Amino acid sequence: MRTxxxxxxxxxxxxxxxxxxxxxxxxxxxxxxxxxTVLSAQAxxxxxxxxxxxxxxxxxxxxRMQLATPQQLEELIRTIGLYRSKAKxxxxxxxxxxxxxxxxxxxxxxxxxxxxxxxxxTAKVVLANWTGEPAIAVDTHVGRLARRLGLSxxxxxxxxxxxxxxxxxxxxWIYLHHALIQHGRAVCRARQPRCAGCALHRLxxxxxx
Length: 209
Hints:
Elements: H1 4-17, H2 30-39, H3 45-58, H4 62-65, H5 70-77, H6 83-101, H7 109-113, H8 120-131, H9 140-148, H10 157-167, H11 173-186
């Protein structure tokens, strides 16, 4: 874990590089955000954005999607990883939204987690991006950068999340999540990170402080 000053410098640097960082997933309703986030597990946001226009055109609401068969959804999301399992999740998710929540996406973390295909990270992403509830959802990018920047030595996402939340002010959590993802995609890649010229080089233990 880093000092308060280090964390503030990291945050200030990210804000200079990625002002207004936000999710890359495209959506217009909380239901669409929930569906897109479920699809994004072990898949890129770009690949999700390629299939959701047709998916949302055919099934814009949980009321419509609950009437679909998994096979019908599979045809629309075939290019997404784990598409068969996700198609089943989406039908079940839509059914439960209609039967348990009046067709609305719940605002409770526990209720979101109770839906098919909705894990800890997915629930956090939905709440942060729709309701503005402070959260740092730890995906592969956030976890990798947290370790490389010396913000956490943990491998479990839930533990990384707790350590990040302890080091950064609550009002920065949503932004930090998105900014770390952007930096992980553009610069601090899993393979062949672009360390030369990285704006965070001075603060990165990987490059020597």
